[in-house]
Every structure is written in structure tokens, then in C-alpha cells.
Amino acid sequence: MDLKEPLVPKPIPIEKVQTGIPEFDLILRGGLPRGRIHLLEGAPGTGKTTIALQLLIQARNDGRKGLYITLSENAKELEATAASHGWSLDGLPVFDIVPIEAQLDRQQSVLYPSEVELGETVRLIIDRIERENPEVLVIDTVSELRLLAQDQLGYRRQILALKQYLQGRRCTSLVLDDLTHQNGDTDLHSLAHSVIVLEQIERTYGAARRRLRIAKMRGAEYQSGWHDFAITKTDVLVFPSLIAEEHKSDFEPRTMESGLPALDELMGGGLTQGTTTMLVGPSGVGKSSLALQYVTAAVERGEHAAYFSFDETFKTLGLRSLALGIDIEEAVHRERVGWHRANPSRLSPGQFVWQVRREVEDRKAGIVVIDSLNSYLSTMPEEQALSLQMHELLTYLNNKGVVTILILAQQGVISDVQNPVDLSFMSDTVVLLRFFETGGEVRKAISVVKKRTGVHELSIREFRLFPNGMQVGPQLMDFRGVLTGVPEYRGSADPLLNGSSETG
């Protein structure tokens, strides 16, 4: 008898309900599974009510009937919350339950008041659901039901009855829990099909960081891990964590030139597409100006560039660019350069990564500058986690064929220059910028110490920033103390730049 291959059942497609937050739907792989009970839990102030309102507004826009049952806020308070975001609850039924103890004559009852209160409250909820017949339901919050319970068994019995009732109606339900009573967590987790956790982290200084994760979702695919999110005046913005391997693209690596022949000779022709270059040096040595030179060259070729600045305001950048003969303000005005001022005390790491992705995926940026890596690592004290997140971002940019320039400021100015953190493993090319002394003057030198994608010059060149724009001179062979980090030039003044024109 021939053995037949075992039949593998085909997965049943799950219909999804969109939440009204597009990036949240990406994490949920399309939305919340329809007809199921989903638990949204988080401490007070984490954004549960705001997310729930977005779900019901989306349901209304999709032509689905919704219902908001609140045991913690009244209808006017919910309308005020929605109005603060510019939303309207017109057409959305809101049912606020009056505390049952105000309706009961305790002296007439032979039962524990809590037993009557909990059962009566659940009955009121079911009666209103029967009357409205919603397709999408929000119950805010189950913590109030827990307060009415005399014991855990009675509470679980009532919650289980409510779950069975909702499942029979094929209603997509979002139940909120403010975690004010931890004893009921395991019961709710076991009864709910999905568990979504919201968290708010207070920083020592700056805005609090909000994040969420899907703790479980039975029978449905989702993106695991923590995801930053923010609540703005008009929207809830979720920033899905980056998975670099999901964004591979085919491209033919090419070389990006700087517009300065001598600098391109030093770099072995230029920067290779799909690689990361780290500009390392002390403060004031010209790292940002060098990055700006590559941005300008890209714009002149008709490409889009993105500049993320943690340290410098746009006004300061504009003044410096004009001194270099570059009009960065005009390029930004014409949307050839996407300039972003990243405030470390207000920006979450996930939001920063999302901004970079929008420049690359929506505006097709061919070069991305991050200025500086030091300030990025200061956004949170968890340096190891941030380093891993930056590594994932750089892998993503390399997969998309972007030329990435990282700026790393070293501690110190002239002597005893040190790296605040060793992140050279992230980069394919490392460019070292240094001050050096000659003829009673402090000048600037540039050299390439690493390039994975090709051959580069091993020599040191001088460069100047002002007054005639950026200038790069010929190779300088008469240096001493290069390995000490404070090179000293002992040669003649003939090869040195005099500020007239670029040499190369």
C-alpha cells in the first residue's frame, strides 16, 4: 500500500479590524483579529483611552457600529478628551455606568453588597450591548469591575460569563485595565485572546518615553518586542521597531564623490553606496563641515539627502554653510535636503529611527548624516541597547543602498583625545580628523584609517574650511607623532594650504 503524504491543513485567514493607527496596524500585521477579546493594559496616563477612541473612530469611518462603555469616566470627560485631539465622537454611543451602590438598598439585601453590585453592573453592560448591537466595543476599565468583587472567584466567574457572551456575538472587544490591582492580571491574560501592554518610562530629564508590546495574540501573527509611540495633539504615532533583514534591496554599488578631487583621492575615489562612514575627531576640527560637503555634492547631482542634527540649530548650520560657499537653506527650502533637529530630551530612539526610514523610503534619500553619535547615545542611559538599535539602523541603511555618515566627537581638543565609546565596528570607513601644529599655527589634518570596500591613501593631508570654502591639500609626508593622536608637522611650508584654492 502506498503511503500518502499527510494532509497539512491550510491556515484559516483571520479577518482584521483596523485600529485607526496605521503603524500600530503594521505591528499587528493588519489590525486586531475580528470577533475576539483584546486586553489593553497599562498604568494610568499611558494612553489607553486615547488608543481606544482611535479604534472606535476608525470603526465609525469604516461603517461599523461602535460602543464605548465607561465605568471610570463619564461621557462629557470622554468628549473633552477627544476634543483635545481635534476628534469628534458624533455617532459613537457612550454609556457611562452610575455606581451601583447608589441604586441599591443595602438593608433589603441578604447578599453581600459586592455580589449584587458586580452582577448588576455586568447585567447593565450586557443590556446596553443588546440594545446597541455594536461590532466594535470598548469597556473602560475592567479595574472598576474588580473593585466590586468580594472575592477572586466571583470576579472570574462574571468576567468569564461576559467573555462567553461577547464571543457569541462576534463582537470585536477592547477591554482596558489600568493595573491598579495586580492580583487580577493572570485571570485577564488567560481569558483574553490578545494582550497589549502599554508602558511609560520617566526620564531623569526630558519628556517621558512611551512604548508598547504585544504580549500575546492567539492564532495571529504580530511583530514582537517593544515599540516606541507618542501621543501628539492630533494623532497617536507608533514607531515599529526596525528589522533590517526585512528591507533588503538590489542595487549596483557606486561611488559617491565629494566634489573635491583631492578629498576623493584620499578616500580612494569616494564613499561607496551601501556603506557607513564615521568621521572621528575633537570638537571644532570640521567633522560636520566635511559631512555637509558630501550632502551638497549629492544635491548638485540631483539626489535627495537627509541631515539629522542633535547638536546644531538650523540657523547655525545655515551660517556655517554660507561661510563654506554652500546655501543649505535653499536646498532645504527646495526639499532637496531633509533637515531634522533631533532633541535628545524629547525624542525617543524609536521615533528617530522612524524619521530616518521616512526620509529613505518616502523621499528616496541617497545619503544620511547623523550628527552626532554622542548625542544619540545620550537620549537614554541604556547605551548597550541604543548601540544595538543603531547597529540595526545602519544595517537597514546599508541594505537600502544609502551612504551613511556618522559623526563621533572625541573628548578633548588638542591633546589626550579619547573616544567616548568604541563604535568603530559599526562603520565600513573611518576618517580621522586632527589638529596639528606648525609654524606657530594650529591647523587641521585628515586621514583615512579604515575602508572595507576598497583601497585608500595611507597618507595625511591638510584641509581648511575658510575663507574660500573647503580646501584639501596634497599629501604631507613630514609628520611626527601620528600614532600619539597629536601629529606634529616638521616639513617645509611649501605643501601647506594658503587659503587661495583647492590643491589636488
Describe the 3D structure.
By secondary structure, the protein is an alpha/beta fold. It has two domains: 16-241, 3-Layer(aba) Sandwich (Rossmann fold); 246-489, 3-Layer(aba) Sandwich (Rossmann fold), CATH 3.40.50.300. Helix content is 30%, strand content 25%. The chain contains 14 helices and 24 strands. A nine-stranded mixed β-sheet has the order 5-4-6-7-3-8-9-10-11, sandwiched between helices. It has a nine-stranded mixed β-sheet with strand order 16-15-17-18-14-19-20-21-22, sandwiched between helices. The protein is elongated and about 95 Å long.
Give a brief description:
InterPro entries: AAA+_ATPase, Circadian_clock_KaiC-rel, KaiC, KaiC-like_dom, KaiC_dom, P-loop_NTPase. This protein has helices at 22-27, 48-61, 75-84, 113-132, 142-148, 152-169, 185-191, 261-266, 287-300, 314-323, 328-333, 349-361, 373-377, 383-399; strands at residues 16-17, 32-33, 37-41, 66-70, 94-96, 136-140, 172-177, 194-201, 209-217, 227-231, 236-239, 255-256, 271-272, 276-282, 304-309, 337-341, 365-371, 403-410, 429-438, 441-451, 460-464, 471-476, 479-480, 488-489. The protein is an alpha/beta fold.
Give the helix/strand layout.
Blueprint: E1 16-17, H1 22-27, E2 32-33, E3 37-41, H2 48-61, E4 66-70, H3 75-84, E5 94-96, H4 113-132, E6 136-140, H5 142-148, H6 152-169, E7 172-177, H7 185-191, E8 194-201, E9 209-217, E10 227-231, E11 236-239, E12 255-256, H8 261-266, E13 271-272, E14 276-282, H9 287-300, E15 304-309, H10 314-323, H11 328-333, E16 337-341, H12 349-361, E17 365-371, H13 373-377, H14 383-399, E18 403-410, E19 429-438, E20 441-451, E21 460-464, E22 471-476, E23 479-480, E24 488-489
Parallel strand pairs: 3-7, 3-8, 4-5, 4-6, 6-7, 14-18, 14-19, 15-16, 15-17, 17-18
Antiparallel strand pairs: 1-2, 8-9, 9-10, 10-11, 12-13, 19-20, 20-21, 21-22, 23-24
Helix pairs in contact: 4-6
